[in-house]
Each structure stands twice: as structure tokens, then as C-alpha cells.
């Protein structure tokens, strides 16, 4: 049979077969080559990647985060902070939420002082609302959001570490400012910090919220926030406050666990006093804390229950700034 | 039809029906009563249960742990430590691994000084082996094991907190003594602590092991350990060392994550100098650290790879001993 095949139509058939075979071989070699190129680098120890990635457009949106900073009447602080934050490793992009209604964004000045390490987008707002920063911005490409108040400076070391912690606890708000609610015999809740009595579970204190003015959280929660009952949005608009408390309620309800993970900052600074605008933050208002207690109770009504949970986990970076922070006293 | 039924066979049928109906009603009431008793207590805020449970035989084996303490030639320290550890809340039972071959256990004395808060079981060993403590003891009822060296005192506060942390990270070794391995250009590994250079991933130090001489881990790992290659057991027997390094290899391989979670102790003490036995621990031997580096490399051979992973997460208890440990410097 074989010889028969070879003979008819003879040489022509043989050449076609040869050509066909060659093409197949070449294709196979190309595929093999492509596969080899796709092979992952075998690393002996799988280390978390804390090295600074070269800043390219394609910095992985899983390994980087978007800074969202809302600003009102403190453009001098904003610009000072932008110079600092724009250089944080693993920053993908900055979204500035411009609450200075009717005022031009400093785009010209910004561009004239380029190039900049990352893109910075100025989102002009039409109404000065506290919850403007919780929109699900289309420019947001990363899974992680870093939200910072426009008067808060956190060191790059703290941010790099906290981001790595967030990557291990992506469903939580991982940040630097813990707060708590407490229950009172009357059933009315109160909001506060360490000055309030401990919730009384074993030793030490507990926190039930991590404020979003200096924290990492999953960008999906912005979409969740938009879907919350209108009463929540109305409450935040009424008080121009409590958006962070509302976010903690949302996250706690979603996870069934404590909403936040507190990372103890080594170097966190409030630059409020440094502003030339004469404007000091909302938290100076006399009614600020009372409002927040009010918000806690309103949110409990809206959500028909208290979803916040306590935690006493405080995370620090091992051996930073130096090994003395864990040296065994034994 | 109904009247027809009622009439035949008349009164007898009526009484039977009445009896039957009564029985059914009573059974239903009993069932309803039982269901009510089984209803869970509705708690407003689901707090982690750090309160001390009354010590009954039925202390939940999920909410309690078993202390396993191996002892050799330091019975005075053992008894001192037992007085301390027997009173730790959430302790279920103590298992003392008696490596004093041929020597009687202090059972008479122990009983004469009863009653004791929890059962203490003395497991007499036939050979003085370091890995005796890693047997899967039948007396072990809890999911959690607390393993302590017989010269180490950790405060009740630290233990209660670390146990609560373990409950949140049950697949990890949660403990108080972090160590690391480092890679060298030659590919040979070295073992050490903070005195070794940082592994070089971002800032600060990293640890890749948590020693089991002061740590919580899942009791299932004891069974896993027994199933490890004979070469692992032989290595530990050869060195009378490294059982803890082997356990970290095991856990890291099992989870694909860093084996340990380091909880920074507030009060941990080594009582070695307090013993009257004149015996000082194995770690004083000149070759101790070199042996441990040796073990790391041997285990890499046995497991055909380095499974240990680095972590820089250091956990402390929020607001304990006091709120100053997290007070915001802003």
C-alpha cells in the first residue's frame, strides 16, 4: 500500500507531503518556543513582592492601588501631599475629588510641573458633599483603593506595609485610625476612641471601625456604597459627616466579621496647622463627635441591627524601623 | 358522614379518639418545648468570647486548648510552671511529656496537692527524645495545642490573647518566638534571628518560622508530623534538636503560606537560671545554632525544596496593657 501511495501521483505528492510536514514541524517549534517563554520564573522561596516595580502603564492592577483624595479649601496641603504620595511604590493613579465648587482645578500648574510618576485625575464636583469621594469612579482600575484625607501624611514605609497587609485581608478596611462604638445600658450607642471605656471583653481595648480617611479597602465597596439605602446617603448629606462610619457598617455587614484591621502607623502626621487657607477640618466642629454617635444609632435603625464587630488585633511591621521592636526580653 | 362516624361504634370510638387527640397534643407541646430550649441566645453584637468559661468537664473543645509540656531534668521548674499554667482560662487539660527516663512521675505529690483546676496527665516516655512531645496523644481532645518549653513562662494575658489570634488563624503556628532562614549566594541556607541580615524584601525584617516551644497550633499537625518521612524523624533524633523547624516546614508545605503568625509577648520569661537541677537547656550547646542551619538544609533535601515563606506581620493586643500602645501621635 505504501509503495503504491508513493508512486501515484509520484513526485508531486511527495513534495506536497514534505512541504506539509515541514510546516507542521515549524508550527510545533514556534508553539514550543512560545510556551517556554510563558513558563513562570521558578523562585525558590515565594517572597511577597515588596520590591518597587518599574513604573509602566501596565503596572499590574492587582499589585497596585489607586489613591483617592478628596479636597476642600486646602489646595496648598493637597499639593504638598501630592508631591509625597505620587512617589509611593505600587501607586497606580491618583484621583483628586475636587470639592472646591466653581474653582478651577490646578491642572495647568500641575502639567507645567511634570512629568509626574503617575497619572493624576482631577474630578470636578458640582456640589460640596462629603460622600463625593465614595463614587465608583470610572478611572479606577485597581482592586485596591487608598483613601486619604487631604491633611494627612502617612510615610511611604507605613503605606507599603499596610498595602501588603491589605493584600492578605482584602475584604477588610486596613488602616491607621481605629475607633469604636460602645453599648450603654439604655441600648443607645455611643461613638469614640480610647477615652471611652473598653467594651469589656477580656483585657485591653477593642475597636470596631477603621476610619477611611487613612486606609486601604477594596474598590468593590464603592459600588456597594452606591447601592446602599437612600437613607444612608441622606444621613451623610445631612451631617456632612459619617461616611466612614457608614462604610464600616457596610463592610461589617458584608463580611460578618470586624470591618477593619488596624495597622499601627510609625509615622503619621496631621498637616492641618500647616495650611495657609485658615480652614480647619470638619472634626473641629463642636458637634462633630455627637454627630457621629447620632450616626451610629441612625445606621443601626436603617440596617435594623448593629453589624459592627470588635477586634483587638493590632498589626505592626516586624523589625521596622529596627529589630528592637520585637527583640525578645527573655 | 361525620355523624355516621360518630355513631358507630359510638362512645368507645369517641373515647379512643379523645385519648389519641390528647396524646398528639401533649407530644406536640413537648416537641415545642424542646425546640424553644434549643433556640440560640440572640446576642446583639457577636463578641469574641474572651470571658472565662466555668471549668466543667464539658468546656467546649473548640473554645479551649491543651497544654503539652515536655520536661527533662527540671522538675522544679515544671511544677512552678504547672501552678501558673493550670489556671489559664480556656485551658482544657495539661499533658506532661515525662522525658526523665526511669524516674517516677510526681503523681503522688501532685494528687496530694489537689484539687487542680484541670486534669494533668503525665506521659511516661521510654526513650529521652526531643520529638516525644510531637506524638498524637490520645488524651488530646481539643483542636488547639499550646506547646511550651519547660523553662518558659508566658503571662496569662499573652496566652489568652494569642489563643484568640490562633482561633482566627487556625492553620498557622501562632506564637511568641520568631526566627528566620536566609539564603546565601552559594544556595546554602542559614538559620537565625534578627542578627542575620534581613531577607531584603522592602523594609524591616522578616521571619519564616515561629518556634513551637511557646506557641499554639492545630492538633491535627501532630498526626501530620507522625506521617512525615522517616528521614525527618531520624534527623530530629540525630540532633536532638530541630523538631520545631521540622514542624514549620510541615505547616508551610501544608498551607502554602508562611507557617507562623508572630504575636509580640508583653510578658515572657525564661526561668532557666531558676532551676536547682543545674541543668541548662539544649540551646546552650556550642553547636546548637549550627545544627539548626544544618537541619534547614537537610529538610530542604528531604522535601526537595524550600517551603518556608516569609512574613513581617507582628500582632499585638490593642490597648493592652494600656491605650498608650496605640495612641495616635497625630
UniProtKB/TrEMBL annotation, chains A, B:
Main localization, broad class: endoplasmic reticulum
Record's protein name: Exostosin-like 2
Database matches in Pfam families: Glyco_transf_64
Annotated membrane topology: Single-pass type II membrane protein
Gene name tied to this protein: Extl2
Task of the protein: Glycosyltransferase required for the biosynthesis of heparan-sulfate and responsible for the alternating addition of beta-1-4-linked glucuronic acid (GlcA) and alpha-1-4-linked N-acetylglucosamine (GlcNAc) units to nascent heparan sulfate chains.
Transmembrane segments: 20-42
BP GO terms, sorted: N-acetylglucosamine metabolic process; UDP-N-acetylgalactosamine metabolic process
E.C. numbers: 2.4.1.223
Known cofactor(s): Mn(2+)
Amino acid at each position: 500500500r505504501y509503495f503504491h501511495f508513493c508512486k501515484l501521483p509520484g513526485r508531486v505528492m511527495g513534495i506536497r507531503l514534505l512541504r506539509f510536514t515541514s510546516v507542521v514541524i515549524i508550527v510545533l517549534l514556534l508553539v514550543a518556543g512560545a510556551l517556554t517563554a510563558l513558563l513562570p520564573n521558578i523562585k525558590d522561596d515565594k517572597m511577597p513582592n515588596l520590591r518597587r516595580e518599574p513604573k509602566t502603564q501596565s503596572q499590574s492592577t492587582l499589585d497596585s492601588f489607586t489613591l483617592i483624595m478628596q479636597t476642600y479649601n486646602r489646595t496648598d496641603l493637597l499639593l504638598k501631599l501630592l508631591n509625597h504620595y505620587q512617589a509611593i511604590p505600587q501607586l497606580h493613579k491618583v484621583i483628586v475629588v475636587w470639592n472646591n465648587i466653581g474653582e478651577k482645578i490646578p491642572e495647568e500648574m500641575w502639567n507645567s510641573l511634570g512629568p509626574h510618576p503617575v497619572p493624576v485625575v482631577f474630578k470636578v464636583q458640582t456640589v460640596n458633599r462629603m460622600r463625593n469621594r465614595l463614587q465608583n469612579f470610572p478611572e479606577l482600575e485597581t482592586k485596591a483603593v487608598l483613601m486619604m484625607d487631604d491633611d494627612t501624611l502617612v510615610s511611604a514605609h507605613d503605606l507599603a506595609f499596610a498595602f501588603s497587609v491589605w493584600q492578605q485581608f482584602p475584604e477588610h478596611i486596613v488602616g491607621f485610625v481605629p475607633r469604636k462604638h460602645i453599648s450603654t445600658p439604655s441600648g443607645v450607642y455611643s461613638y469614640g476612641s480610647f477615652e471611652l471605656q473598653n467594651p469589656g471583653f477580656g483585657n485591653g481595648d477593642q475597636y470596631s471601625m477603621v476610619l477611611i480617611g487613612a486606609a486601604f479597602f477594596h474598590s468593590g465597596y464603592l459600588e456597594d456604597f452606591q447601592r446602599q439605602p437612600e437613607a444612608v446617603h441622606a444621613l451623610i448629606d445631612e451631617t456632612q459627616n459619617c461616611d466612614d462610619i457608614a462604610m464600616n457598617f457596610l463592610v461589617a455587614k458584608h463580611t460578618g466579621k470586624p470591618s477593619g484591621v488596624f495597622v499601627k502607623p510609625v509615622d503619621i502626621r496631621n498637616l492641618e496647622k500647616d495650611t495657609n487657607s485658615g480652614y480647619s477640618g470638619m472634626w473641629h466642629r463642636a458637634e462633630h463627635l455627637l454627630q457621629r454617635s447620632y450616626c451610629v444609632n441612625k445606621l443601626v435603625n436603617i440596617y435594623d441591627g448593629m453589624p459592627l464587630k470588635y477586634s483587638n488585633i493590632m498589626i505592626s511591621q516586624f523589625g521596622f524601623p529596627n529589630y528592637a521592636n520585637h527583640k525578645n526580653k527573655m
